[in-house]
Hints:
Elements lengths: L2 E4 L2 E4 H11 L2 E2 L1 H7 L14 E3 L5 E3 L3 H11 L2 H5 L11 E6 L2 E6 L2 E5 L16 E6 L5 E6 L5 H7 L31 H23 L3 H26 L19 H9 L6 H26 L6 H16 L1
Parallel strand pairs: 3-6
Antiparallel strand pairs: 1-2, 4-5, 6-7, 7-8, 9-10
Amino acid sequence: MNKYYINNCEIDSIDLKCLVVSKGVKVSKEVYKKFSKTHRLGINPLMCNSMFLSDGTIVQLTDMSFHLQYLTGILSWDNLKLLKYVQDLGTPFSLKVYEGKPTLFYYSEFVDEVTKPEDMELFPPSELGFSYLMLFDDYNKVDLTLIPLNCLEEYLKRDKLVTVLLDKDNRIKEKIIPTDEEYHIRKPTMRQFDDCCNEFWHVSTYVVKGLMRREILYSIAHLGIVRRELLRMMSWKVGLETHFSLSVGKNYKYLKRYVSDGLWNRLMTTYRMDTYENCWNSLFTCLDLFREVSKEVAVKLCFEYPDNDFNLTKYVMDMYKGYE
Protein backbone atom coordinates (compact mmCIF):
# COMPACT_ATOMS: atom_id res chain seq x y z
CA MET A 1 0.00 0.00 0.00
CA ASN A 2 1.39 3.40 -0.99
CA LYS A 3 2.42 6.09 1.47
CA TYR A 4 1.71 9.79 0.90
CA TYR A 5 2.50 13.04 2.68
CA ILE A 6 -0.40 15.47 3.09
CA ASN A 7 0.16 18.53 5.30
CA ASN A 8 3.42 16.94 6.49
CA CYS A 9 1.51 13.87 7.73
CA GLU A 10 2.15 10.39 6.40
CA ILE A 11 -1.00 8.61 5.26
CA ASP A 12 -1.67 5.41 3.35
CA SER A 13 -3.88 4.75 0.33
CA ILE A 14 -6.99 4.10 2.43
CA ASP A 15 -6.52 7.38 4.30
CA LEU A 16 -6.09 9.19 0.99
CA LYS A 17 -9.16 7.49 -0.40
CA CYS A 18 -11.24 8.69 2.56
CA LEU A 19 -9.96 12.23 2.16
CA VAL A 20 -10.64 12.34 -1.57
CA VAL A 21 -14.13 10.83 -1.20
CA SER A 22 -15.10 13.19 1.60
CA LYS A 23 -13.57 16.34 0.05
CA GLY A 24 -14.23 15.65 -3.62
CA VAL A 25 -11.94 16.55 -6.52
CA LYS A 26 -11.80 19.42 -9.00
CA VAL A 27 -11.44 17.76 -12.40
CA SER A 28 -9.90 19.88 -15.12
CA LYS A 29 -11.63 20.21 -18.49
CA GLU A 30 -8.50 18.78 -20.09
CA VAL A 31 -9.07 15.48 -18.25
CA TYR A 32 -12.58 15.17 -19.65
CA LYS A 33 -11.40 16.12 -23.12
CA LYS A 34 -8.55 13.61 -23.15
CA PHE A 35 -10.12 10.61 -21.42
CA SER A 36 -13.94 10.74 -21.54
CA LYS A 37 -14.19 9.08 -24.97
CA THR A 38 -12.09 6.06 -24.06
CA HIS A 39 -12.69 5.77 -20.31
CA ARG A 40 -15.67 5.65 -18.00
CA LEU A 41 -15.59 9.32 -17.11
CA GLY A 42 -18.28 11.96 -17.43
CA ILE A 43 -19.66 15.07 -15.78
CA ASN A 44 -23.03 13.42 -15.19
CA PRO A 45 -23.31 13.25 -11.37
CA LEU A 46 -25.26 9.96 -11.68
CA MET A 47 -22.29 8.19 -13.26
CA CYS A 48 -20.18 5.95 -11.06
CA ASN A 49 -16.93 7.77 -11.80
CA SER A 50 -13.86 6.41 -10.10
CA MET A 51 -10.10 6.20 -10.42
CA PHE A 52 -7.31 3.84 -9.42
CA LEU A 53 -4.37 4.97 -7.35
CA SER A 54 -1.02 3.62 -8.49
CA ASP A 55 -1.26 0.69 -6.02
CA GLY A 56 -4.68 -0.33 -7.36
CA THR A 57 -6.82 1.27 -4.65
CA ILE A 58 -10.20 2.31 -6.10
CA VAL A 59 -11.36 5.82 -5.22
CA GLN A 60 -14.83 7.15 -5.99
CA LEU A 61 -14.53 10.37 -7.94
CA THR A 62 -16.87 13.30 -7.22
CA ASP A 63 -16.13 16.33 -9.38
CA MET A 64 -16.65 19.30 -7.07
CA SER A 65 -15.85 21.86 -9.78
CA PHE A 66 -18.79 20.59 -11.79
CA HIS A 67 -21.14 20.50 -8.80
CA LEU A 68 -20.19 24.02 -7.74
CA GLN A 69 -20.84 25.22 -11.27
CA TYR A 70 -24.15 23.34 -11.32
CA LEU A 71 -25.29 24.73 -7.98
CA THR A 72 -24.40 28.30 -8.80
CA GLY A 73 -26.25 27.92 -12.08
CA ILE A 74 -29.55 26.96 -10.48
CA LEU A 75 -29.40 29.01 -7.28
CA SER A 76 -28.76 32.65 -6.57
CA TRP A 77 -25.79 33.41 -4.33
CA ASP A 78 -28.15 34.51 -1.58
CA ASN A 79 -29.86 31.13 -1.65
CA LEU A 80 -26.57 29.33 -2.02
CA LYS A 81 -25.29 30.90 1.20
CA LEU A 82 -28.22 29.40 3.05
CA LEU A 83 -26.95 25.89 2.35
CA LYS A 84 -25.59 24.66 5.65
CA TYR A 85 -22.34 23.16 4.31
CA VAL A 86 -21.72 25.28 1.26
CA GLN A 87 -18.38 26.42 2.66
CA ASP A 88 -17.23 22.81 2.63
CA LEU A 89 -17.78 22.42 -1.11
CA GLY A 90 -14.29 23.65 -1.85
CA THR A 91 -11.58 21.01 -2.10
CA PRO A 92 -7.78 21.01 -2.05
CA PHE A 93 -7.69 18.02 -4.42
CA SER A 94 -7.55 18.38 -8.18
CA LEU A 95 -7.22 16.01 -11.10
CA LYS A 96 -5.16 17.34 -13.99
CA VAL A 97 -3.34 16.04 -17.03
CA TYR A 98 0.37 15.91 -16.19
CA GLU A 99 2.85 14.50 -18.73
CA GLY A 100 -0.09 13.07 -20.65
CA LYS A 101 -1.56 11.17 -17.69
CA PRO A 102 -4.34 11.92 -15.16
CA THR A 103 -2.62 13.03 -11.98
CA LEU A 104 -3.95 13.81 -8.51
CA PHE A 105 -2.70 16.98 -6.79
CA TYR A 106 -3.15 18.36 -3.28
CA TYR A 107 -3.26 22.10 -3.86
CA SER A 108 -0.23 22.39 -6.19
CA GLU A 109 1.66 19.38 -4.81
CA PHE A 110 1.88 16.12 -6.74
CA VAL A 111 0.15 13.25 -4.89
CA ASP A 112 -0.13 10.29 -7.25
CA GLU A 113 -0.52 9.29 -10.86
CA VAL A 114 -3.91 7.65 -11.31
CA THR A 115 -5.63 5.56 -13.96
CA LYS A 116 -9.24 5.50 -15.11
CA PRO A 117 -11.39 2.43 -15.78
CA GLU A 118 -11.55 1.90 -19.52
CA ASP A 119 -14.83 2.05 -21.36
CA MET A 120 -14.27 -1.32 -23.01
CA GLU A 121 -15.59 -1.90 -26.54
CA LEU A 122 -14.44 -5.48 -27.04
CA PHE A 123 -15.87 -6.62 -23.68
CA PRO A 124 -18.77 -4.26 -22.92
CA PRO A 125 -20.40 -4.60 -19.47
CA SER A 126 -23.30 -7.04 -19.33
CA GLU A 127 -24.42 -6.08 -15.84
CA LEU A 128 -25.86 -3.03 -14.18
CA GLY A 129 -23.40 -0.38 -13.05
CA PHE A 130 -19.64 -0.57 -13.43
CA SER A 131 -17.48 -3.55 -12.60
CA TYR A 132 -13.90 -3.56 -11.32
CA LEU A 133 -11.69 -6.62 -11.13
CA MET A 134 -9.14 -6.32 -8.32
CA LEU A 135 -6.21 -8.51 -7.34
CA PHE A 136 -4.51 -7.40 -4.12
CA ASP A 137 -0.88 -7.90 -3.16
CA ASP A 138 -1.87 -10.74 -0.78
CA TYR A 139 -3.63 -12.44 -3.76
CA ASN A 140 -7.13 -11.85 -2.47
CA LYS A 141 -9.33 -11.22 -5.51
CA VAL A 142 -12.47 -9.10 -5.47
CA ASP A 143 -14.94 -8.47 -8.29
CA LEU A 144 -16.62 -5.20 -7.33
CA THR A 145 -19.69 -3.75 -9.04
CA LEU A 146 -20.95 -0.26 -8.25
CA ILE A 147 -24.56 0.46 -9.18
CA PRO A 148 -26.80 3.54 -8.82
CA LEU A 149 -29.26 3.32 -5.93
CA ASN A 150 -32.19 3.61 -8.32
CA CYS A 151 -31.14 0.24 -9.80
CA LEU A 152 -31.14 -1.56 -6.44
CA GLU A 153 -34.55 -3.20 -6.84
CA GLU A 154 -33.72 -4.47 -10.32
CA TYR A 155 -30.34 -5.78 -9.14
CA LEU A 156 -31.91 -7.75 -6.28
CA LYS A 157 -34.37 -9.38 -8.69
CA ARG A 158 -31.68 -10.45 -11.15
CA ASP A 159 -30.08 -13.15 -9.08
CA LYS A 160 -31.62 -15.13 -6.22
CA LEU A 161 -28.16 -16.09 -4.96
CA VAL A 162 -27.62 -12.58 -3.58
CA THR A 163 -26.52 -12.44 0.05
CA VAL A 164 -26.81 -9.12 1.88
CA LEU A 165 -23.72 -8.57 4.05
CA LEU A 166 -24.39 -4.98 5.08
CA ASP A 167 -27.31 -2.59 4.63
CA LYS A 168 -26.28 0.39 6.73
CA ASP A 169 -29.07 2.62 5.40
CA ASN A 170 -31.80 -0.03 5.79
CA ARG A 171 -32.81 0.23 2.15
CA ILE A 172 -33.76 -3.45 1.79
CA LYS A 173 -37.10 -3.95 3.51
CA GLU A 174 -37.67 -7.67 2.89
CA LYS A 175 -35.46 -10.45 4.16
CA ILE A 176 -33.49 -12.03 1.32
CA ILE A 177 -32.80 -15.76 1.54
CA PRO A 178 -30.30 -16.87 -1.13
CA THR A 179 -31.24 -19.89 -3.23
CA ASP A 180 -29.82 -21.53 -6.35
CA GLU A 181 -33.27 -22.72 -7.42
CA GLU A 182 -33.28 -20.73 -10.66
CA TYR A 183 -30.06 -22.51 -11.67
CA HIS A 184 -31.41 -26.02 -11.17
CA ILE A 185 -31.25 -28.33 -14.18
CA ARG A 186 -34.50 -28.00 -16.12
CA LYS A 187 -36.35 -30.97 -17.57
CA PRO A 188 -35.96 -30.72 -21.36
CA THR A 189 -38.85 -30.69 -23.76
CA MET A 190 -38.87 -33.02 -26.75
CA ARG A 191 -37.94 -30.07 -28.96
CA GLN A 192 -34.99 -29.13 -26.75
CA PHE A 193 -33.78 -32.72 -26.74
CA ASP A 194 -33.97 -32.84 -30.56
CA ASP A 195 -32.20 -29.50 -30.88
CA CYS A 196 -29.34 -30.69 -28.67
CA CYS A 197 -28.96 -33.89 -30.70
CA ASN A 198 -29.14 -32.05 -34.00
CA GLU A 199 -26.50 -29.53 -32.95
CA PHE A 200 -24.17 -32.22 -31.63
CA TRP A 201 -24.27 -34.52 -34.65
CA HIS A 202 -24.13 -31.88 -37.37
CA VAL A 203 -21.36 -29.80 -35.77
CA SER A 204 -19.27 -32.98 -35.53
CA THR A 205 -19.00 -32.83 -39.34
CA TYR A 206 -17.26 -29.44 -39.04
CA VAL A 207 -14.71 -31.00 -36.71
CA VAL A 208 -14.04 -33.59 -39.39
CA LYS A 209 -13.77 -30.92 -42.10
CA GLY A 210 -11.09 -29.09 -40.11
CA LEU A 211 -9.14 -32.27 -39.48
CA MET A 212 -9.26 -33.32 -43.12
CA ARG A 213 -7.96 -29.89 -44.15
CA ARG A 214 -5.28 -29.90 -41.44
CA GLU A 215 -6.87 -26.87 -39.75
CA ILE A 216 -6.47 -27.93 -36.14
CA LEU A 217 -7.63 -24.67 -34.51
CA TYR A 218 -10.84 -24.79 -36.54
CA SER A 219 -11.41 -28.37 -35.39
CA ILE A 220 -10.69 -27.55 -31.75
CA ALA A 221 -13.19 -24.68 -31.83
CA HIS A 222 -15.94 -26.94 -33.16
CA LEU A 223 -15.01 -29.73 -30.77
CA GLY A 224 -15.82 -27.20 -28.05
CA ILE A 225 -19.35 -26.84 -29.46
CA VAL A 226 -19.74 -30.61 -29.73
CA ARG A 227 -18.61 -31.03 -26.12
CA ARG A 228 -20.95 -28.25 -24.97
CA GLU A 229 -23.94 -30.26 -26.20
CA LEU A 230 -22.51 -33.42 -24.65
CA LEU A 231 -22.29 -31.63 -21.30
CA ARG A 232 -25.85 -30.39 -21.70
CA MET A 233 -27.06 -33.96 -22.32
CA MET A 234 -25.04 -35.23 -19.34
CA SER A 235 -26.62 -32.58 -17.12
CA TRP A 236 -30.08 -33.82 -18.17
CA LYS A 237 -29.02 -37.31 -17.18
CA VAL A 238 -28.02 -35.93 -13.75
CA GLY A 239 -31.30 -34.03 -13.56
CA LEU A 240 -33.31 -37.18 -14.15
CA GLU A 241 -31.34 -39.04 -11.48
CA THR A 242 -31.80 -36.23 -8.93
CA HIS A 243 -35.41 -35.29 -9.82
CA PHE A 244 -34.21 -31.95 -11.24
CA SER A 245 -33.57 -30.70 -7.71
CA LEU A 246 -30.08 -29.23 -8.01
CA SER A 247 -27.59 -27.24 -10.04
CA VAL A 248 -24.33 -28.52 -11.51
CA GLY A 249 -22.90 -25.00 -11.32
CA LYS A 250 -21.59 -22.52 -13.84
CA ASN A 251 -19.82 -24.25 -16.75
CA TYR A 252 -20.91 -27.60 -15.24
CA LYS A 253 -18.23 -27.25 -12.56
CA TYR A 254 -19.99 -29.63 -10.11
CA LEU A 255 -20.80 -32.30 -12.71
CA LYS A 256 -18.11 -34.66 -11.40
CA ARG A 257 -20.07 -35.07 -8.15
CA TYR A 258 -23.01 -36.69 -9.92
CA VAL A 259 -21.54 -38.97 -12.61
CA SER A 260 -19.62 -42.21 -12.35
CA ASP A 261 -15.83 -42.17 -12.32
CA GLY A 262 -15.79 -44.07 -15.60
CA LEU A 263 -18.01 -41.53 -17.33
CA TRP A 264 -16.00 -38.66 -15.92
CA ASN A 265 -12.63 -40.10 -16.93
CA ARG A 266 -13.83 -40.66 -20.49
CA LEU A 267 -15.10 -37.10 -20.64
CA MET A 268 -11.71 -35.80 -19.51
CA THR A 269 -9.94 -37.55 -22.38
CA THR A 270 -11.92 -35.41 -24.85
CA TYR A 271 -9.90 -32.38 -23.77
CA ARG A 272 -6.72 -33.80 -25.30
CA MET A 273 -6.56 -31.87 -28.54
CA ASP A 274 -2.88 -31.01 -28.99
CA THR A 275 -2.40 -33.21 -32.07
CA TYR A 276 -4.58 -34.24 -35.01
CA GLU A 277 -4.73 -37.83 -33.77
CA ASN A 278 -5.82 -36.69 -30.31
CA CYS A 279 -8.52 -34.53 -31.91
CA TRP A 280 -9.84 -37.55 -33.79
CA ASN A 281 -9.82 -39.62 -30.59
CA SER A 282 -11.56 -36.85 -28.68
CA LEU A 283 -14.25 -36.70 -31.33
CA PHE A 284 -14.75 -40.47 -31.29
CA THR A 285 -15.11 -40.44 -27.50
CA CYS A 286 -17.60 -37.56 -27.67
CA LEU A 287 -19.68 -39.54 -30.19
CA ASP A 288 -19.68 -42.65 -27.99
CA LEU A 289 -20.53 -40.72 -24.82
CA PHE A 290 -23.28 -38.71 -26.44
CA ARG A 291 -24.86 -41.80 -27.98
CA GLU A 292 -24.79 -43.61 -24.65
CA VAL A 293 -26.16 -40.76 -22.55
CA SER A 294 -28.72 -39.40 -25.02
CA LYS A 295 -30.24 -42.86 -25.52
CA GLU A 296 -30.59 -43.20 -21.75
CA VAL A 297 -32.23 -39.77 -21.47
CA ALA A 298 -34.56 -40.54 -24.40
CA VAL A 299 -35.76 -43.77 -22.79
CA LYS A 300 -36.40 -42.14 -19.39
CA LEU A 301 -38.30 -39.22 -20.94
CA CYS A 302 -40.11 -41.38 -23.50
CA PHE A 303 -38.56 -39.38 -26.34
CA GLU A 304 -37.82 -40.80 -29.76
CA TYR A 305 -34.10 -41.14 -30.37
CA PRO A 306 -33.21 -39.18 -33.55
CA ASP A 307 -31.77 -41.02 -36.54
CA ASN A 308 -28.84 -38.60 -37.06
CA ASP A 309 -26.54 -40.98 -35.23
CA PHE A 310 -26.21 -43.77 -37.80
CA ASN A 311 -25.67 -41.65 -40.94
CA LEU A 312 -23.35 -39.08 -39.36
CA THR A 313 -21.30 -41.65 -37.46
CA LYS A 314 -20.81 -43.51 -40.76
CA TYR A 315 -19.69 -40.23 -42.36
CA VAL A 316 -17.15 -39.56 -39.61
CA MET A 317 -15.68 -43.05 -39.79
CA ASP A 318 -15.48 -43.02 -43.60
CA MET A 319 -13.69 -39.65 -43.51
CA TYR A 320 -11.24 -40.98 -40.91
CA LYS A 321 -10.40 -43.93 -43.15
CA GLY A 322 -9.66 -41.50 -45.96
CA TYR A 323 -7.57 -39.35 -43.58
CA GLU A 324 -5.33 -42.29 -42.72
